[in-house]
Amino acid sequence: MSTQPLTPAAEASTSPTSAGASPRVFSLFCLGGYLLSMSYGTTFLLALLVASRGGNEGDTGLIISTAIVSTIVAVILSGHASDAVGAPRAVGVSGLILSASCLGFALVPGVGQSMRICGLLLGCGWGAFYTLGPIIVAAIVEPARRIRYFALLSGSMMSGIGSGPILGRGAKLLGWPLEATYWLAAATSLCGALIFFFLHEPIRRITATQGAARATRLSWASLLRVLQAKAVFPIAMVGLGGAIFGGLSSFQTAYAAAKGLDFSIFFIGFMGAAIGCRMLLSGIVVRQNPHLAAAVLTFLVVLSIAMFRFLVSDWPSYLLASVTLGVGYGLTYSVINGLAANEAPLGETPQALLLFSLSYFIGVFGYPLLAGHLIVAQGIPALLSATMLIALGNFAIALGRLLPRLRAMARQTTG
């Protein structure tokens, strides 16, 4: 990490006026995000691709492990890239890297070292885009509207991720080889990259009106300042939420098999609810107290895990539990993303959002590694019990932040 200190004036660029982001610019931004995210969605097809080339689950695991490491490294270094060439251009470069990764998966024969290099590229491209996208939003949208715009961006990204497996299904129905999916994902990533290169100048003009250049790189000093600020709470919460999402989604095939159900019900219910809520309901949520919203939504996540543990017995109850998780998790993410940006120390909103992304990836990648061993040793019920404890911890943080505010409001009312 850099040791370069940051100037407080840098925060000016993260608090634009409501006229900052025009609908056209933000619509293009979300379209670019959707197109880039389709490449990441193709990771759900990697096991099939590897198997079609004579590989096994171990080969798939090596490719994904390489992507995990490069993702985390890309998150940490993305601020340096942003400061060097500008965040939109850095995202454009990440789109080119994602496109190269998908081309590699389509063209490389076998499942050896070349496939792992493709996985490394995938992680680099995805980690940089996932981190810098919200940082750009924070720079062009006023604080009061950030939760809404974060929700629209994350909804677009999740839609793109969900479209990756759909591309694979469509290719199969048309009789095309699985590699065709990766060709299509490479093309969409290239289009997304071109959109972000085009957006560099419009976004530069928007941030320039704020009167200060925005430092994005993470330094040891900024790390300590962010962790000592209120932003540490949403940063911790997204890590716990990522663990919940990673744990439940990674082992749905095993869970559904144990229940005699079709695991696709989970992804249909969860993805549909999360995307729908982010795109359609975030405008309502943003008008509420964010701490109250976080408490209610994290409770929904607790409720959904209890449903998976004790209620699910057929496909309607499985779908209901999945939708409940999608609503709770989908909207919680957007709310705490906004809190991380708005509760960051003066001048360090980008650094807080970078740590937010890093915490998410540690949770979403790290917990499934532990959960896998837990399932082998004690079974699916043990996984659900452990995940419930994580969800209760997240709910406790949200409730702990809400109750003092409710008491203060009560004293003001009675006073």
A few lines on this structure:
80% of the residues lie in helices and 0% in strands. With 415 residues, the protein is mainly alpha-helical.
Compile the SSE list and pairings.
Layout: H1 23-41, H2 46-52, H3 57-85, H4 87-107, H5 113-140, H6 146-173, H7 179-208, H8 220-227, H9 232-250, H10 252-259, H11 264-285, H12 290-311, H13 315-342, H14 349-378, H15 380-414
Helix pairs in contact: 1-5, 1-6, 1-7, 3-4, 3-5, 3-14, 4-5, 4-7, 5-6, 5-14, 6-7, 6-11, 6-13, 9-13, 9-14, 9-15, 11-13, 12-13, 12-15, 13-14, 14-15
Q: What is the strand tally?
A: 0
Main beta-sheet strand count, sense and barrel state: none
Mean pLDDT: 88
Count of DSSP-assigned helices: 15
Order of helices and strands: HHHHHHHHHHHHHHH
User: Beta-strand level of the residues, as a percent range?
Assistant: under 5%
- What structural class do helix, strand and pairing data support? mainly alpha
The geometry reads as: globular
Explained architecture:
By secondary structure, the chain is mostly helical. The chain has 15 helices and no strands. It has helices spanning 23-41, 46-52, 57-85, 87-107, 113-140, 146-173, 179-208, 220-227, 232-250, 252-259, 264-285, 290-311, 315-342, 349-378, 380-414. The chain is globular. The model is unreliable at 1-19 (pLDDT under 50).
Q: Can you tag this structure with a few keywords?
A:
415 residues, mainly alpha, 0% strand
